[in-house]
Write a structure and sequence with these properties.
The protein is an alpha/beta fold. Helices cover 35% and strands 13% of the residues.
């Protein structure tokens, strides 16, 4: 896909994002900078003073993510964090104070109920609504911040970001979008009007299941300054090696995303056509409840497919029968994973609910493995 202003496609942008100007005899992507402190004679000015505040390796990665989340958009800033939850917490706790109201999804990431408890302990009112049907509209009045997770994890519902942003703006409410499932190649929340795009870089952004990372991208300097201050206070910073690995992985983002998204669609189609009713969900599947809105605001539909087997025992047998798919949590890696999501206890899903993350294997091999496991587990 090509940006109409610059002519740069997603693959070109991913490969080049965040690279410094070429220097003779220097690597194109500088290695990680391991430093707790920097030479700092005189007044403490300049970009790098202390390792908790900033690091050159973070700078390259933050610029790269910003170029993907909001290409050619002036004034955009990205901050990287030690994990996706660190990034989520930074936005929530830097923007909300006692007496404020926040709207959260009641069908989002399973740690959000823990976040709700902490917010309420600080005197913040928390309202919740499901993602589908733009139900957040009914509880927006008086809110300081609307938190959107679209597609939702793990149910894969989608809401109309533009519509919700317009309603929030009319009420003086900030909007943050969790962009983890979509990635910036699938969806650009800032272009849809959101104040923040927040994501776990642990998932498809880095794509190899070997680092924890999070980030916040925003276009308002004063608002982002408060997020930066929160990062400094809490110290939820990534290690330079993790930041460097994430930046290195960005070069293959478009290749991975396109392969994994294509695999997810093929798997969703195979599951849809299975003789049992599996309640398959995938935003890119025509006929899915999310398909219409997703097609209007997403450029790619993600690598996660969900479906439901009739019992917990059947789901466990299915997972055990898989040969090419690891039984593991998280998603977005080049190796396919699946899990019975109800085992964690934090998601309102049936016991037989499966969250499947399509990797980069050959589609025909994945489909064969899934269908064989479905058949064996039914015996």
């Amino acid at each position: 896909m090509t940006d109409s202003v610059t002519g740069a496609g997603d693959g070109t942008r991913a490969v080049r994002a965040g690279l410094p100007e070429p220097v003779r005899h220097e690597p194109t992507l500088p290695g990680p900078v391991f430093a707790a402190h920097f030479h700092l004679p005189g007044d403490p000015t300049g970009p790098y003073t202390y390792g908790r505040d900033d690091n050159p390796t973070w700078t390259h990665l933050e610029r790269a993510i910003g170029e993907l989340e909001a290409p050619e958009q002036d004034g955009v800033e990205t901050l990287v964090f030690a994990s996706g939850m660190a990034a989520i917490s930074a936005v929530l706790f830097s923007q909300l104070s006692a007496g404020d109201t926040v709207v959260l999804p009641n069908d989002g990431y399973q740690v959000l109920p823990l976040v709700r408890t902490q917010l309420e302990a600080y005197g913040i009112e928390v309202r919740t609504a499901p993602t589908g049907g733009d139900a957040q509209l009914d509880v927006l009045d008086g809110a300081r911040l609307l938190w959107i997770e679209t597609p939702s994890n793990p149910g894969l519902d989608v809401c109309d970001v533009r519509r919700l942003v317009e309603a929030a703006r009319a009420r003086g409410c900030l909007v943050a979008v969790d962009n983890t499932l979509a990635t910036p190649l699938g969806q650009r929340p800032l272009e849809l009007g959101a104040d923040f795009s927040v994501a776990s870089g642990t998932k498809q952004l880095s794509g190899h299941g070997d680092i924890l990372l999070g980030y916040v991208t925003g276009g308002d300097a004063s608002v982002m300054a408060s997020v930066r201050r929160w990062r400094k206070i809490v110290g939820a910073i990534p290690g330079p090696m993790e930041a460097w690995l994430a930046h290195r992985s960005l070069a293959t983002l478009q290749l991975r995303v396109d392969r994994q998204n294509a695999n997810a669609l093929v798997i969703a189609e195979a599951l849809r056509d299975w003789p049992e009713e599996l309640r398959v969900r995938y935003p890119g599947l025509p006929g899915d409840p999310s398909y219409k809105i997703a097609s209007q605001q997403m450029r790619r539909f993600g690598c996660v497919v969900s479906f439901t087997l009739p019992t917990r025992a059947r789901a466990d047998r299915f997972l055990d029968a898989l040969r090419l798919v690891d039984d593991a949590t998280s998603f977005g890696g080049v190796r396919s994973t699946a899990e019975r999501r109800g085992r964690w206890g934090g998601d309102a899903v049936p016991e037989g609910f499966i969250r499947f993350s399509a990797g980069a294997e050959d589609a025909e091999d994945l489909v064969a493995d899934v269908l064989r496991a479905l058949d064996e587990s039914a015996q």
